[in-house]
Amino acid sequence: MKTTALILFALTYVLLLSLPKLRAYIALASAAIFVALGILPVEKIFVTVDWNVIMMIAGTMGVVSLFIESKMPSLLADFIIEKTPNVKWAIVSLALFAGIISAFVDNVATVLMVAPVALTIAKKLNISPVSSVIAISIASNLQGAATLVGDTTSILLGGYADMNFMDFFFFKGRLGIFWIVEIGAFVSTLVLLFIFRKDKEPVKAMERTKVTDFFPTVLLCSIVALLIIASFIENKPSITNGLICMVLFAIGITRKLFITRNINTLTDAIKEIDFQTILLLTGLFVVIGGITEAGIVSDISKLFVKASDNVFVIFTLIVWASVLFSAFIDNIPYVATMLPVTAQIAGILQIDPYILYFGLLIGSTLGGNITPIGASANITGIGILRKEGYEVSAGQFMKMSIPFTLSAVICGYILIWLIWR
Fold first, then answer.
1. Which residues does residue 175 pair with via DSSP β-bridges, in sequence order?
2. Are strands 170-171 and 174-175 parallel, antiparallel or unpaired?
């Protein structure tokens, strides 16, 4: 059964990378096969899917559709165009903006908020939005590791290692993971500047767009504020973030329905939700649950225990193996499995486990940036582009993501060892 699961998993990802237009159907078909073969029991399907993420994506997409309709992204695009001299700086500015937001808000929500601004700028300048949306996606995924609330993997680490919000800034008298991630973000920004060095088309200021309805902007800002507040609430329901996004979407739709008195308002808003992306993520959650149930993720993790008794070697293996695995495997079950393994390794070697924890966080979170399906933020960004008529190949994505990711990981790898060895 384990061999069957591994072959099916590998075939799934090969097809996902090879046939981007059919990703949702491939993921769902693979999920169905995992269940049909009994690799993942039927009763575990529902709990395997991360409904919090699904609800959050759907709700945020809905609010973002209202946000776009209000023309606020167009106004923000006007501001950026005014302040940047050329396309290169416009793209990098958006990536930095997304990174800052993503340190405190889920990566997927960040992409959904910032990508519309990139699309608007691209339309105003008559250029392709592909590069800018990819930059936004990978920048948001990088910064998600900076704080306790920025990414699910950070939340997992905080809970397992009993770390609070401020521990990510300063911990045990040393610099925390936040500063390590920010230095990595600075280095990777230099990489982006190099990648876009030829995009020197001048950006000319245009007449500012007039926004008449600011309520969608209030809703979007409310999502940001409430997600941050919710991160400090202990023992909250697992679907809290998803409920926040869905409730605010419902409020926005109800208000618009009341104003327009037109039932098409509801159907039009639902059409704006990217169901292809939602179906893809749902299928992937089941697939990952299948290989986790089969013991593949656990077996991979246990290889580290036998690898070496040298701390530097173990640290290096954890970082770079996490980068490799997370490029293809969802990092949430991987991190959840590896945390107790790293704790066991630290106990055997009689060392402080935090150097291994932080190495795991950096490698697993940033590793997802390498491929277009390695992180939910990437899948969301590709989905947004697809809705706009742009199909992004794996090669096109990785041409930017690989140098960006490697620069950030190498920087984090060195700094964590120097600070926490």
1. 170
2. antiparallel
d(CA 347, CA 352): 8
User: What is the spatial distance between Cα 321 and Cα 327, in angstroms, rounded to a whole number?
Assistant: 10
Nearest residue to 333 via CA among 392, 287, 372, 379 = 287
Cα distance between residue 275 and residue 24, in whole Å:
9
Of 73, 83, 142, give the one whose Cα is nearest residue 112: 73
SS3 of residue 74 by DSSP? helix
Helix (H, G, I), strand (E, B) or coil at 149: coil
Contacts of 125 (CB under 8 A, 6+ apart): 81, 87, 90, 201, 203
Nearest CA to 128 out of 69, 74, 199, 73 is that of 199
Q: What HEC string does 33-59 produce?
A: HHHHCCCCCHHHHHHHCCHHHHHHHHH
Per-residue tens of pLDDT for the chain, all 421 residues: 788 888 888 888 788 778 877 888 988 999 999 999 988 888 888 888 878 878 887 888 788 778 877 877 777 777 777 788 888 888 888 888 888 878 877 777 778 878 888 888 888 778 888 989 999 999 988 888 888 777 777 877 877 787 777 788 888 888 889 999 999 989 999 999 998 888 887 877 667 778 878 898 899 888 878 877 887 787 778 788 889 889 999 999 888 888 877 777 777 777 777 787 788 878 888 888 888 888 877 776 677 677 777 889 889 999 998 898 888 776 776 787 778 778 878 887 788 889 999 999 999 888 888 888 778 788 889 888 988 888 888 888 999 999 998 999 999 999 999 998 7
